[in-house]
Amino acid sequence: MIRRALGAAAALALLAAGTGWVLTAPEPLPEEVLAGPPGDAARGARVFAAAGCAACHVAPEADIGDAPVLSGGRAFASPFGTFYAPNISPSTQGVGDWSDAEIVNAVMRGVSPSGAHYYPALPYAAYARAEPQDMRDLVAHLRELPPSEAENRPHDLPFPFSIRRGVGLWKLMNLREEWVVDGDLPEPAERGRYIAEALAHCGECHTPRGPLGGLDQARWLSGAPNPSGEGRIPNITPAGLDWSEEDIAYYLETGFTPDFDTAGGEMALVVEEMARLSSEDRAAVAAYLKSVPPVE
Predict the structure, then answer these.
(1) Fewest CB within 10 angstroms: 16, 197, 214, 256, which?
(2) Last residue of a domain, one of 144, 177, 210
(3) Which residue in 198, 27, 29 sits closest to 100, CA to CA?
(4) pTM: predicted TM-score of the whole model, two decimal places
């Protein structure tokens, strides 16, 4: 009787382990999504700026400039450990040997060329909402930037967060393609939603997180603790940001607030990237932020 019970328990354990292995498997994009026209580097430069790639992937203390060297190395502290931005320049140490499809899968699905999960420090939960053609354009632009042979630094993560397979469970709970602010929006707010929610991934910093690091979308853009431990990232819903659309757009272009203060810290890098967008795109982001439901 005992042997039979033990055998049944072992079988259930194996079944549960097998089910968990299947459910947490990396899921790349379908082939039909990856197929499409070649990327346009000029359009990709605008996607690159909106997505803020250089702000994370240039070396610490390096300038972004017009042709940034995406050598990586910048540290990002979190409650789960410290992540280090990788080299994504077009070199053998970066993504120079990757196919376009491999880069798009990494950005939109968090799946490496070897089929492993990337940690969501790469904001693929936001990029999952992007248009695949925009991602192909982004890849075309990346391939025109200067190469760097800087080696990647491994993340400093304690157990169990060092087990990448567990990221598959996080994806099951948090990877969505629907808009957070759903429904029809008037132009230019609809364009602003695409930039803010998909490309610029504003929610990654400005939205509080649950215990496993997923965004609390019920408090979308309502502010969050700074992962570095210094201060708090502000509430940018209408309940916390009473600037006009013109004020917001001007801030995204110049970094100057209506109170004659200036953007600092990581936001200064974001503004440097946003300033490369068209005035219409910055106005669209401002219109979107004014349409976000207020959260006290």
Answers:
(1) 16
(2) 177
(3) 29
(4) 0.90
